[in-house]
Write a structure and sequence with these properties.
The complex is a heterotrimer of chains A (687), B (169) and C (121). Chain B is mainly β. Chain B is built from three helices and ten strands. Chain B has a five-stranded mixed sheet, with no helix packed on it. In chain B, strands 3-6-7-5-4 form a five-stranded mixed sheet. In chain C, helix 2 runs parallel beside helix 3. The chains are: A alpha+beta (687), B mainly beta (169), C alpha/beta (121).
């Protein structure tokens, strides 16, 4: 794809994000001119950018919306529920146009037609009174800017020979506002002289419009040389609002308007109007100012204000920084060996700076969760309306930052958890009141740091989970035995089992069978954990814990033969020294350590290594589901903070390695995924 | 239309000459310690650290069904830019020695031998006759890397016979 | 039934942009690369609007406009031509040859649609 197009796509999706944010805030504060301004500017940018970079459909679509919000800016239109709804739907529509690869074009077209019709309805001024909501508008004249004109259109006879249809001209002209049209047949010659393709009709039109004179002239732009056109302004206000003029506007065939008389009356009316409005204005000035206090400060549009950086550049930067650190570690080693005071001082300084550089570089790849919060707010808003529940959504700690790769990975699971809460968790208003709760429910999303992890918790004050019901369902689905003894906590954890779904009716919203097992899988794909805690009748909290960054692992550096491996500290339970003899004499790969039996895996064997093993080896007890399994290595080097690097496409089948890491001496260590190791070698050993 | 000239870099695997288009070669490295990744196919020798990124190294002789490479003084790693399934991947191949860079006019490239002959044309773009009457095979390195299994340059049925026949010539 | 439009321009990107914009607006769009192709296309067909560039190889826009006006059944078809600001003289020539209106290049889709809505409804 064209580089420019790609850039525009990024910018456009940013703009849509900002648009939704602005809309959500505007909903609560419809008079806020800053918000309206922002929305107008967003539409303007989308229109311009769209036209420039090949998204003409977006450009032409946003044109109307830009118009609409321009009118709101000029106070010619009020913000209404329908307008907000249309704009929300437009945001979706534009997003689908951005993502359209051609296969959905028909749907998009149809959708657009519907949206356009609704926008047109608003632009045609249907929304002045009852449908609007929000505090009463200031009492200015809502029909300011309308002027009245006299237009004479007399096409020359041959005008149709260049494909012009004079009726279209009239049609376009009267579309500008209220009108009276008088057709003249006086020019039609008698039969012998009648030429079939010639044009003999002409028209006089009285028009009142809020468009300026240029717009009227524009109608005739193609036919200036083919037509007699007269345009005269006859009143600075709407002639159709003057009862006195009405009889003069009656159309009688071939009878021209008495222009002089009409103009005279308009003058009279103009003078009278001026006197009247001067009196009113002084009265109204007092009332106009009351609506202003409500202006809330809209959070800065670009909360991540700054420069846009291609993520490849960030990856390169990260690589270089890691290399710098390892090189510097090597320098450290050298300085120590050589015991040169000056050298040691310099290298310590260097180490300090490198560490700061690394921290700063890493922070570039962090994005606040707030980025996702807009999406969530939107989801709660739309979904709660759909199910007819009133649900408040609050986000706390949205400034908490996550690695950019994690942000995307966590979005879907969180959306899903929210859907569950809205659909199944929070009860209907009636049920809630019967239970003595407030009719509206509340969902709180909390994000904070805890140690080297980011915690995201979603809490609702809904019905909570019933351990008995869950247990029953699990038994029905054959997931557990009928007589299993489970604590309440264990019962609730059953929701993470594949194939589980507690809802009686499968609603459209939460989807079929996309249960908590999928959420758990997606969260563990990004090396996170998910837990649930619930209190029947009071609510449920789902807690997700994620590593601070995907690319740094606190691990244990170990050695087998001549290769270094890294095992994440998070899975290590304990380490025991063990005699090589004991390993080879173990029966069925089960070993006895301090009185307990543990299954183990001897990696030398599994890796097919044939060189001689050391007499003393180490067995690392790792956590595997809810058991402890031993992994045997030659020896332990020590704790090590590894920067994870991918092994690449060629090693995609070797998934027992999550990646590699470059050690201080430049050699490569392999990062073990013990979970996959155990899975893989279990299969083999059962053969 | 103008003649297209292309540059190739030639190297030896055993006593066969091969060449790859210079555009695919990123650089040539001295042999360094290779970290073996267990449970991978034998011809995947392991990985090395190339300026902070992890680079996979292939023993391309093994991939061609030859005997595994023996590290000698002239053994080097050719770092290549390979396209696999529309993705560009960097990988290194171990070669016995690098020979020369030569230019080739489009019309100097002879078609790869067809079916029934010694070499499978899928992996060979063409051959070029050198001054000493020997042939250098222009490798299509993308296709070589796109197959997971061993690449049989020669039709397996004919391998032994062909080799025998050659010996007696 | 959707109105049909023929765009005649030797620039592929112009044809693309026009095609895209007009299709989205609900028209059925046909394209030709020059006057000769356009002639072949129009032969025996009815079309609701022709949009043509003025400078094209083989047969330029003015020639095409004259041809269309001289062809039976086509004397009322609206024809819009594409022109740059500076080509005033051409504008007069094109109108004399029988063009209905024009669109100034470069144009944004909105302008294209506005011009079209003047001549077909």
């Amino acid at each position: 794809m064209d580089n420019f197009q790609k850039k525009f796509l990024e910018e456009a999706s940013d703009l849509i994000n900002q648009l939704e944010q602005a809309l959500l805030t505007l909903e609560q504060d419809t008079q806020n001119p800053e918000l309206v301004d922002s929305i107008f500017r967003i539409m303007h940018s989308l229109k311009g950018g769209g036209g420039m970079f090949g998204f003409d459909n977006i450009s032409s679509y946003t044109h109307k919306l830009e118009n609409m919000y321009d009118l709101v800016r000029q106070k010619k239109l009020k913000v209404t529920r329908e307008m907000l709804d249309i704009t929300f739907e437009s945001a979706d529509h534009i997003t689908s146009m951005l993502n359209d690869d051609g296969t959905k074009s028909n749907e998009i077209k149809r959708n657009e037609e519907i949206l356009n019709r609704r926008i047109d309805a608003i632009l045609d001024g249907d929304n002045f009174s009852d449908t609007s909501f929000g505090p009463a508008e200031s009492l200015e004249q809502t029909v300011s800017g309308v002027k009245s004109y006299y237009v004479k259109v007399k096409p020359y006879e041959h005008i149709q020979r260049n494909g012009t249809n004079p009726f279209f001209l009239i049609d376009e002209l009267v579309g500008l506002g209220k009108h009276k049209v008088n057709i003249f047949y006086s020019n039609i010659p008698d039969f012998e002289n009648f030429v079939l393709d010639d044009s003999y009709l002409w028209w006089e039109i009285i028009l009142s419009t809020d468009k300026d004179e240029d717009a009227i002239k524009d109608v005739f732009i193609f036919v200036e040389d083919d037509c007699e056109i007269v345009i005269q302004r006859i009143s600075e206000s709407d002639i159709f609002e003057m009862p006195k003029v009405a009889p003069l506007l009656d159309c009688r065939q071939d009878f021209p308007f008495d222009l002089d008389k009409i103009k005279a009356i308009c003058q009279e009316e103009a003078v009278k109007e001026k006197e009247k409005s001067e009196a009113e204005n002084s009265e109204n000035k007092a009332k106009v100012n009351s609506g202003d206090e409500h202006i809330k400060k809209f959070t800065k549009e670009s909360s991540i204000s700054g420069i846009r950086v291609a993520s490849e550049k960030i990856d390169d930067l990260m690589n270089l920084v890691s290399e710098l650190i390892t090189t510097q570690a090597g320098l450290n080693l050298y300085a120590e060996k050589n015991k040169d005071a000056e050298l040691t001082r310099i290298t310590e300084n260097l180490e300090n700076i490198s560490r700061q550089l690394r921290d700063t570089a890493f922070s570039i790849t962090l994005i606040p969760i707030d980025y996702l919060v807009v999406r969530f707010r939107r989801l709660v808003r739309d979904l709660s309306r759909e199910v007819g529940k009133e649900i408040e959504f609050e986000a706390r700690g949205a400034e908490t930052e996550l690695d950019k790769t994690l942000i995307e990975g966590i979005s879907e699971p969180l959306m899903h958890i929210l859907r569950n809460s809205i659909d199944h968790g929070i009860e209907s208003a009636a049920e809630r009141m019967a239970a003595g709760k407030t009719p509206g429910g509340k969902i709180i999303l909390q994000a904070y740091y805890s140690g080297s992890q980011v915690v995201i918790a979603v809490t609702d004050d809904g019905a909570g989970m019933d351990p008995k019901k869950i247990k029953r369902k699990a038994i029905e689905k054959g997931l557990i035995a009928a007589d299993s003894q489970l604590s309440d906590k264990e019962a609730i954890d059953l929701i993470f089992m594949p194939g589980f779904s507690t809802s009686e009716k499968v609603t459209n919203i939460s989807g079929r069978g996309v249960g908590m097992d999928v959420v758990k899988r997606k969260v563990s794909d990004i090396r996170g954990t998910v837990q649930v805690s619930s209190s029947l009748g009071e609510g449920t909290t789902i807690t997700i814990k994620l590593p601070l960054t995907l690319s740094i692992i606190d691990g244990m550096l170990v050695r087998i033969a001549d290769v270094d491996y890294i095992i994440p500290l998070s899975v290590i339970d304990t380490i025991f020294a063990v005699e090589h003899e004991k390993i080879v004499s173990a029966f069925q790969n089960v070993i006895n350590i301090e009185g307990s039996q543990y299954p183990f895996y001897y990696l030398r064997d599994e890796f097919g290594l044939t060189d001689s093993a050391p007499a003393k080896e180490e067995i690392i007890m790792v956590k595997y589901e809810d058991r402890k399994i031993g992994i045997v290595v030659d020896n332990i080097t020590g704790e090590y903070q590894a920067v994870l690097k991918p092994l690449g496409k060629l090693y995609r089948n070797q998934d027992i390695f999550s990646g590699a890491s470059i050690l201080g001496d430049g050699t490569v260590a392999l990062v073990l995924d013990t979970h996959k190791v155990i899975n893989q070698f279990t299969k083999y050993n059962e053969l | 239309m103008e003649q297209e000239t292309n540059s190739y870099i030639s190297f030896m695997l055993g006593d066969e000459y091969f060449a790859i288009n210079v555009g695919k070669v990123l650089n040539i490295l001295q042999l360094v310690q290779i970290t073996k990744v267990p449970t991978a196919p034998d011809y995947m020798k392991g990985v090395i650290n190339l300026r902070g990124t992890v680079l996979p190294i292939i023993d391309i002789r093994m991939k061609f069904g030859m005997e595994p490479i023996q590290y000698k003084r002239d053994t080097v790693i050719l770092v290549l830019n390979v396209e696999i399934a529309n993705e560009v991947v960097n990988a290194g191949i171990l070669v016995d020695s690098v020979k020369e860079v030569f230019e080739l006019q489009q019309d100097e490239i002879l078609p790869p031998p067809g079916i029934g002959s010694k070499y499978k044309s899928k992996f060979i773009d063409g051959v070029r006759k050198m001054s000493d009457e020997r042939f250098v095979m222009l490798l299509n390195i993308d296709t070589v890397f796109s197959t997971d299994e061993l690449v049989m340059l020669q039709d397996s049925t004919e391998t032994k016979e062909a080799q025998e026949a050659e010996k007696h010539e | 039934m959707a109105k049909t439009i023929l765009i005649v321009d030797d620039s592929e990107s112009i044809r693309e942009v026009v095609n895209f914009t007009l299709q989205n607006a609900g028209f059925e769009v046909f394209a030709a690369g020059n006057g000769i192709e356009a002639q072949k296309f129009l032969d025996g067909r009815t079309i609701d609007l022709v949009i043509t560039d003025l400078h094209m190889p083989e047969m330029d826009g003015i020639g095409l406009i004259k041809y269309i006006r001289a062809t039976a059944g086509y004397n009322r078809v609206p024809i819009l031509f594409l022109t740059t600001e500076s080509q005033l003289a051409k504008k007069i020539e094109a109108k004399d040859a029988g063009a209905t209106g024009w669109i100034i290049k470069p144009f944004v889709p909105a302008k294209l649609l506005a011009a079209i809505s003047k001549v077909i409804r």
